[in-house]
Each structure stands twice: as structure tokens, then as C-alpha cells.
């Protein structure tokens, strides 16, 4: 497997910034000051940070509206805290654990924040930014932009992403997530794809999408763009993870592609609306690309490809890493070939990925998930599922009878049906938990 980066104390996990190789990888990831980027933005010189600005785009009227817990009074304060620069996943979790709710954390005093464990610099930044951030306006902005927000506490938050260390507390979504997205593979690679790299990416991404595997990538030039297009071309699903706000597109030339993805998948990011791309955003984006996926496939990458940042995160998250071998005399293939040398699974055909991840079971498992989405089919099942959902602890049938007000025979028969449907399971004598 790829070598793992040294652990960092920063709020958002990322490979060591002092690592010269990582610096080279990040330079390749950005590539923002090249002629193509300048032309796309009609700018004579790039901005101060070297990255041309992302541009806005609008989803079509037919695009699905993402679900957001608008009835939760704590939602505006989650969104407000998430907009504060300097409050990443680690500090966000610290505040929630200390104050119990985002609202209480938001309305606390600087002394309270410091007592909770925030350093002096972060306390000062939070106090200053709080004056200019209006929680209610954050919700209004989402509605206006047709952007959803999923929190780690929301049932619809992606299961795979929730399992990584320090998942982003808020995930902004344009488009919709589907049960099938639990069977996702990330495809990444160089921005300067060769004809061979494009051909292999199109072939593998297309064949995977035909088998109901969701393709995850970063909407970057080169391999990412080919992977998204290939999935859409066969009617498959694809997710694009951005290093900017969900209402913006970077690079600008992919604005039409982004709109198409919203119709057949989703645009995802941990950065709030209006956030322009910055160098530090891209490693965070790559962490989400691997976090949303069962594995990461590199179809073509030179030694300093930014795609290797994603494989580093994949290794840390326990994800499988795959690579397509290339010509050993070609600089464009050095990174992918070295991944194989370091232990990544070599991919010659799509079957190599399917068998390694047991994805041949995905169609049947997806049918089960879709079936579960249509259930429960009556009020009794809905009532018992709601009671089982209250706690992860097994609940005795007598307790369920008392709480539901239903007779023992009805509760017993309903639990049997829920068990057969895979929605509940027997945890002990006459005790059940939600499956």
C-alpha cells in the first residue's frame, strides 16, 4: 500500500505540509496558473493565491432537491460554525462535546470556548467572525441556491464518510445521494492525461457504472473529467467532490459537466457556499473522495501527481488502492507503477476491481436497499421502527408493547416481518434492535 503520511496536529487531517513530495503533489493538483486556466478566466495574470476564481452555476429545474433538516432549530448554528475559518472537524467536535448543541457553542463566551479547549488564536477568530455571520441567513442561502446540507447526525449522511477519522461535520450537497452510492469507487489521476490514460479511464469507469457502481472523482481536468463523463455516458451515477463551495465550479471549463452531474448524481463539498478554491482546500477534498469510496483507482499518474494525495488518505482510511500499469519508460506512468510496486492492486480489467471488492454482489444488495427505502409498508411497522431507532440498545418486546400501545400479538407478528425484511434483528431472547 502507499506510504502513509506523518500524523498532523491540524484541525483537518492532511499529509505533512513539510513533506517536499507532498508540496510537489499539491503543485500538480492545483496547476492553476497554466495558460488554459488563465484563458478560461479571461485574466492576464492569476490572482494572488495563484488559483483562478471558480465560477457559479445553476442546476436545472429537473435536478433533485437535496434533503435538509430544516425543521431542526440547531441547523442554522451548525452552518454558522462550519463557516468559521479555523473551525474544522476536530474543533467542531470538541465544541459539540463540550456544549451539547451547535447553538450553545455559538452563543458561548470566549472564556467558555477557551475552557472547552480552543486555543487563543482560534477563540479570537471565532469571536471576530461571529459578528459577521448570521445563522438564519445561512439557511436562507442554501434554499436560494438549492443546496442541501447533511450533518454527521443526519441519517442521510453517507455511511462510508461517517466512518473515517474526523468526518466533515457538514456536507453540502447539490443533487441527490442514492442507496447505490454505498457501492462507490473513486477514479483519480493526472490532469495531463495521455491518450492511453483517457482510454483506460473511459473503459473502466464506463464498465463500472454499467454495473451500478457509483464513480467518485474531483471534477479536475484530465482523468477526473474523463471518469465523470464516462459514467454519465452509460447512464450511471457519479459524485464530484469540490475544493470550493457547492455553488461554484473549478476549473471553470467544467461548468456544464457540473450541471449534468447534479442531474445524475451530486456535487459534494465540506466548504460552505461562496468559498473560492485555495491550496489547502484540495487535500481536504481528496480526503473526502477516498472517504466516500470503497477504494481508489489511479488510472494514470506521474511521480508528482496530485492523485497520490488521495491514495495516501485511502491508505489511512483502510480503503483499497488500485492502479493501472503503464509504460515503464513513460514519465506519465511512474506514479501508478510505483503504487503497484508498493502494494496497490494492479488492474488490467474491471474484473480485478469487482472481485477484490466483492462488487459482484452490488446489484442484489442495491435492490435490498431500494426495497428498504420503500418500507415500512404500514403504520405498525413504522411505529416499531421508530421506537427501535431511539436507541442502539436491544429493546424487549414488553417494552415495545408499552411504548407503542399495541397488543403483544401485533407487536410480535410485526417484528417477525421486520426481521424477514432485514429492517430489524433479534438480539437476544425477545429483544430486538434495528438492523
Provide the fold topology:
Layout: H1 20-30, H2 35-40, E1 55-56, H3 75-83, H4 89-99, H5 102-106, H6 110-116, H7 120-130, H8 135-145, E2 148-151, H9 159-162, E3 170-175, E4 184-188, H10 195-210, E5 214-217, H11 223-233, E6 238-241, E7 248-249, H12 255-263, E8 265-269, H13 281-291, E9 295-298, H14 307-316, E10 320-323, H15 334-341, E11 345-346, H16 350-356, H17 362-373, H18 379-389, E12 395-396, H19 397-404, H20 408-420, E13 424-428, E14 431-434
List descriptors.
alpha/beta; DNA polymerase, domain 1; three-stranded antiparallel β-sheet; 14 strands; Arc Repressor Mutant, subunit A; Rossmann fold; 3 domains; 435 residues; 20 helices
Write a brief caption for the model.
The protein is 44% helix and 12% strand. The protein has 435 residues and is of the alpha/beta class.
Amino acid at each position: 500500500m502507499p506510504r502513509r503520511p506523518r500524523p498532523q496536529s491540524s484541525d483537518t487531517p492532511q499529509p505533512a505540509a513539510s513533506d517536499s513530495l507532498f508540496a510537489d503533489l499539491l503543485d500538480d493538483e492545483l496547476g492553476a496558473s497554466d495558460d488554459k486556466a488563465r484563458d478560461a478566466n479571461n485574466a492576464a495574470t492569476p490572482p494572488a493565491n495563484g488559483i483562478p476564481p471558480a465560477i457559479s452555476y445553476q442546476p436545472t429545474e429537473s435536478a433533485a432537491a437535496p434533503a435538509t433538516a430544516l425543521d431542526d432549530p440547531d441547523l442554522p448554528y451548525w452552518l454558522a460554525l462550519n463557516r468559521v475559518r479555523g473551525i474544522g472537524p476536530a474543533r467542531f467536535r470538541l465544541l459539540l462535546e463540550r456544549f451539547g448543541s451547535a447553538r450553545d457553542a455559538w452563543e458561548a463566551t470566549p472564556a467558555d470556548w477557551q475552557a472547552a479547549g480552543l486555543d487563543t488564536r482560534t477563540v479570537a477568530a471565532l469571536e471576530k467572525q461571529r459578528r459577521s455571520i448570521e445563522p438564519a441567513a445561512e439557511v436562507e442561502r442554501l434554499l436560494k441556491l438549492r443546496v442541501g446540507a447533511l450533518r454527521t447526525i443526519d441519517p442521510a449522511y453517507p455511511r462510508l464518510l461517517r466512518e473515517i477519522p474526523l468526518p466533515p461535520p457538514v456536507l453540502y450537497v447539490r443533487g441527490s445521494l442514492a442507496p447505490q452510492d454505498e457501492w462507490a469507487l473513486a477514479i483519480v489521476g493526472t490532469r495531463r492525461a495521455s491518450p492511453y490514460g483517457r482510454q483506460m479511464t473511459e473503459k473502466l469507469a464506463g464498465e463500472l457504472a454499467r454495473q451500478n457502481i457509483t464513480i467518485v472523482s474531483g471534477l479536475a481536468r484530465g482523468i477526473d473529467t474523463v471518469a465523470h463523463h464516462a459514467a454519465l455516458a452509460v447512464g450511471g451515477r457519479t459524485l464530484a467532490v469540490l475544493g470550493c463551495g457547492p455553488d461554484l465550479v473549478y476549473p471553470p471549463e467544467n461548468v456544464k459537466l457540473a450541471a449534468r452531474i447534479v442531474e445524475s448524481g451530486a456535487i459534494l463539498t465540506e466548504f460552505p457556499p461562496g468559498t473560492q478554491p485555495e491550496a489547502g482546500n484540495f487535500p481536504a477534498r481528496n480526503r473526502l473522495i477516498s472517504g466516500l469510496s470503497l477504494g481508489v483507482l489511479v488510472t494514470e499518474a506521474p511521480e508528482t501527481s496530485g492523485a497520490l494525495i488521495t491514495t495516501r488518505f485511502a491508505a489511512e482510511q483502510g480503503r483499497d488502492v488500485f492502479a493501472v500499469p503503464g509504460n515503464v519508460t513513460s514519465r506519465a506512468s511512474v506514479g501508478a507503477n510505483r503504487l503497484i510496486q508498493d502494494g496497490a492492486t494492479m488492474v488490467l480489467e474491471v474484473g480485478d476491481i469487482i472481485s477484490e471488492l466483492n462488487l459482484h454482489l452490488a446489484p442484489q444488495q442495491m435492490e435490498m436497499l431500494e426495497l428498504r427505502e420503500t418500507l415500512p409498508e404500514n403504520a405498525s411497522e413504522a411505529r416499531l421502527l421508530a421506537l427501535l431507532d431511539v436507541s442502539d440498545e436491544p429493546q424487549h418486546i414488553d417494552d415495545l408493547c408499552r411504548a407503542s400501545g399495541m397488543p403483544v400479538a401485533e407487536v410480535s407478528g410485526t417484528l417477525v416481518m421486520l426481521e424477514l425484511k432485514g429492517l430489524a434483528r433479534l438480539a437476544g431472547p425477545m429483544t430486538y434492535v434495528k438492523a
